[in-house]
Write a structure and sequence with these properties.
Elements: H1 2-5, H2 17-27, H3 31-51, E1 56-60, H4 62-65, E2 74-79, H5 87-100, E3 104-109, E4 116-120, E5 127-132, H6 135-150, H7 152-167, H8 180-193, E6 207-211, E7 214-218, H9 236-250, E8 256-259, E9 264-267, H10 268-271, E10 285-286, H11 304-321, H12 325-329
Parallel strand pairs: 2-5, 8-10
Antiparallel strand pairs: 1-2, 3-4, 4-5, 6-7, 8-9
Helix pairs in contact: 2-7, 6-7, 7-8, 7-9, 8-9, 9-11
The structure holds adenosine-5'-triphosphate and magnesium ion (MG).
Length: 333
Amino acid sequence: RFQRRNRPCRYDIDCFTPSFLSIFESLVPSEEEIAKQKQLLTSLSRLINEEWPNSKLYLYGSCANSFGFSNSDIDLCLSIDDTEISKVDIILKLADILQAGNLQNIQPLTRARVPIVKLMDPETGLSCDICVNNLLAVVNTKLLRDYAQIDRRLRQLAFIVKHWAKSRRVNETYQGTLSSYAYVIMCIHLLQQRRILPCLQEMEATYYATVDDSNCAYFDQVDKLNNYGAHNRDTVSRLLWAFFHYWAYEHDYTRDVISIRTGRIMSKEQKDWTRRVGNDRHLICIEDPFEISHDLGRVVDKFSIKILREEFERAANILQFDSNPITALFEPY
Ligand code: ATP
Ligand code: MG
């Protein structure tokens, strides 16, 4: 393991960059698709505002954080300041409003961990989920989008990592592997370590939001930072190699917590994440940037951690040795 840990990247890694970039390009949604998403947001906002004039509908998740593939579902969050009515009743009433507005396949899921209404819009053909008052997700969506604007390599890297995770079936939280959100945070962490990205939450705040009990503040004038990573010339293939090499051979799973909030690696002791509490096993520790008691790796159990680490090693070895790494990396599981 020590030898592997210090192994340098293969000398010809950069010759794979054009292929990785064309995979990235093929996954990016078209302008037309983005226009359709906006259109749906506008028409749903209008419909819902007739009933609740003080509510506001937000896009969040992959279609708003700039890490979404084409043809992905749309995540919407309805913010409504009404203490008279419970979340479940809001969901049920929302389903009625949507029904009256001629939307299709409407399903209120009131017993889910995050209650939502699912629907399909016949005009655009888009499907979406609407949740209620989940504003932390709206704020973390903005943080991810802001990071993506600083250096284009973040978006390239995260698309390829997500594509790998979906191909290898390690992007399934209900099976104990990691969410897309967690993978994007892991990519941000890597680029912070390489000084390609700054730590926005450690800089002087220009954006503030208080959501529930979390204070969300960070520097969001990212157009002033678009040269930040220019000193580092790593290509996306080299960063991809570094990503898998880190999670296969360098990360200390017994001690470390990655934290993009501080731009550093923290210890499990500092976070008091050293033992299992309830279902949180802390076998791979990824701190949420705003809900700092929340470990994004908490879904991982003793079986899925093995699968995940084997997949990280497989990917690292393919990028190191395979003569045709592109095919092997995304080979369906
Ligand atoms: P995909 O393309 O796979 O649909 P996605 O970006 O929509 O990717 P999800 O993991 O489905 O990613 O998450 C959607 C949004 O929900 C995230 O952008 C984030 O705002 C929020 N979210 C997801 N998981 C968590 C979590 N564990 N803690 C906090 N927020 C989360
Ligand atoms: Mg999603």
